[in-house]
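Researcher: Re-running this chain for the archive, since the previous output was lost when a drive failed. Same request as before.
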Amino acid sequence: MHKTMKRIAAGLVAITGALSAAAASAPMSVFAEDEQILIQSDFEAGIGLPWRTLENAPARQDFDISDGTYNITIQNNDGPESRWDLQFRCRNIIIHKGHTYKVHWKVNSSNEGELYTKIGNYGGTVEVWHNNCGNDDFNQTWECVKIAKGDNTFDAEFTAEYDLELADWAFHYGGKGQYQPVDCFPNGTVLKFDDLSLIDTTGGVFIDGDVNEWGVVRPESNVRLNQIGYYPQLEKKASYVTDASSPLQFEIRDKNGNVKYTGTTKVFGSDPDSGTGKTTTVNIGSQIVTRLKDSGSNVHIIDFSDFRTEGEYTIFVKDTVGVSGTQVLLNKCANDTRLSGDKLLWTNPVTLKTYTMNESSPFRIDRQIYDDQLLRDSMNYFYQNRSGVPIKSEYITSGDKSALSHLRYGHNPDMAYVQSKWVKSYDSDFTDGEKDKKIDVTGGWYAANDHGKYVVEGGFSVWTLQNAYEFSKRRGNTRKWTDGTIAVPENKDNAPDILDEARVELEWMFKMINEDGFVYHSVQDHTLADFPLTFGSIYCTDPPMEDNYPYRIVRPPTYAATFNMIACAAQASRLWKGIDDDFAKECLQNAQNSWKAIMAKQSNWNVNRGKYYSDPYFAPSEFGVNNVFGDNYVVDDAYWAACELYATTGDAAYYDFLKDIDQSGYDKAFSLTSCLRGGENDRSFGSFNWGNTAGLGTLSLYLSDKTSSADRKTIVNSIQNIADQYLIQMSKEGMGIPYKSMTTEDYIGSDKPAFTGYEYGSNSFVINNAMVLAYAYDTDNSKYIYRNGAAEALDYLFGRNGLGFSYVSGYGDKAMKSPYHRYWANSIDPDFPKAPSGVLAGGPCSDMYHDNYLRGLGYKRGTLANQKYYADSAEAWTVNEVSVCLNASLVWMSSFMNDQFGGPKPVPVPYPTNIKVDYSEKYHQVRFTWDKVENADRYGIAVYLAGKWRVQKQDITGTTYTSPKNLTPGVTYKVAIAARVNGIWDTATAIKYAGTVTIK
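Model: Regenerated structure tokens:
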């Protein structure tokens, strides 16, 4: 049955205000003829989705949506796959066999040329229409459509010969190749598409489709808070967005609506990062752009730190002013509220749901905010992204376990060709690739956005996991790593489970060591595969096929990858000692061998900026084909590696080396920085990340007992000084975030102007800076400002932000659902699973120049507040990409918060729930069913007789029938089921949950 797209189209257009809320909610006809099945057939609203561009680098195009047309500029038509290298397409089209369709489209071209256009399946193996063919000339119409300079209008009609549940309409117009004798268009050509129409003339019964908001996140409350909750003993703050300029009264209410606490807001004022309080203009390079008022004029701080009563609550702000005069893109009054009684209401123009904007979502105050489940789920990210092994449902901790599991091996074995030089792009058939050497690189963790595996990304993640263990070990909190809390296949061994998981990646790193002791940078496909990518595809066959397409390649060895392996291996050596001494020795041996090899080239890598084209041991940053994780400054990595070697061995040679580090002016021995310069960062407000690793070495030295007292004092002072900078920044932010905008040129190497705003992976800076605040608290437990700062930083990630949105899947009233991940892609293809819980998204990115999805929504650089540059879409890669780096930091902070501030774990419910009782007249028996109680070994059944509870059975283990004693037919009796947990019966609670049964 065809799902009509009219309602979805209405929702899309409503984003820009071109359709009223009334039209968006118009009832659907149950029968239709001449049905327009495209969601978007013109571009008058200023948005393009679901139409979008696609290019295979180095082929390149740009686009803008203006004057009612989708305007594409061909910048470079020469890519690896000919005309397919530049595309314009619309997906999620449903085609029915036997239905007749009318096709209409227009394009204005600045040059004459040709293009191929088709409607078919995603894989390109089935086409129901192409090149304006009809039913009579389908097999004769394989030549490209000729395009004249100027306006071109085309019409066609065809009857589909196949059913296609997932089809796309695509235009191909790249360069010449095997099936394309000439370039489709010269570089510089501008194509303006308009009036794209696909009409089903057959008609039929239609059903209303689901409302699609395209990942657009709209605040559903102007009370912005941590949607999970707050610890009783820590500071508790929320933010409130309003036009009111005076303090407001607020109430904290329990689940029954009873007021438990009252207070007064503190007016913070405008907060340009979280919302635009008044329409203004800003400069973007030489351009002046308008930033429209899309939020309240003021942010108020709601401080309820002295309210410590545990429970579930909401916050209600007594505000009669609300928010007015807003506009988002073309949608006037988009976020305006209306007063109804004491409530400020707002209606989503797409879903038509109404929200009370001066009331918060529910939150908890208790000692289990960041509990074992969050730790378990965040750790589970790594298991589910292991390469080369089946992912079994028994080790998946959340979500649809059967859908998330897969028994087909991903790349096992993973045989890859070693490349001696850096190549931006390869031909589709890899004829220009090197095939002289092939190695086995099976294992490790996949990256989220492809099936690549990257040493420097893995290195940061391995260190973070191992450091989480080392930090908790220092305080004696290691039981959670060995008591089955973490779900991994190795949890039955004697080793800490977090070390077992890190070992998966570390052993893969050892496979990446070459014969000279250097480490290959990465293994990946030779060309970027389409999205999404299933484990059952040709990329991951079972059994593996020789010479699969695409080919697996190993990038050249690099200084950065080598130092990463050295640091992680040296760190692992001291942690595995006494647990697996043989592995500890192997780790140290690998670290020391590679240290010796790389130190022989110290004069080559000890520079401010290395160039990959003169020294391939530097990883380039300006590649735009596949991921690279470029790093042309590695002195910070050398310092990190030396710190780890010294902390493990105590060898003075490493100490002498590390204490002399001061190459950049930012990475100084025994210190942290708050200004990153290296990897792919330039002046980022942070202390460390995958490309800037000196801070990792300093933190390892802090945990070590091998530094001198003077050097340790320097380390402590530096940690506290940087933490103080983060606290100062938090005081300047209406949402209390330890992060700020930065100004940089584009690292990919385009000619776009510098930008000021949130960078790619902004959430990684927030959570890594929270780690520094946690370390600062460890240096002095009497300084509560640091522990409160660490907690407040997490508030931002879980909902206290410009969108009122939790960036951790499964945690929060409104949380991330559609990460940019090759397998967790249910929102693109329902055959794929939804994301599990506990996954942290990269977060807002103002530099959305390369994100065609955000641009397709109509977002433009500089026109929105930084925290508004986000969409919860599996295709919005700059903002919703997930990674092992992000989740490693989430694991670290979850472990820290639970260890430091978590109370006794709640006792599992000791009584059965969901009790059902029925009576079998035939057998004169009562049948009891119930949900099992965790850790219960026995259940008992009791009946209320003559004013007393009398036990009928107390030795059953599951669902059962029982023959009642002394029961009279026609009489209704109370019955109860109790559970025995750890030898104790909770009969009192069981009686409270008694059911009834009538004897017949």
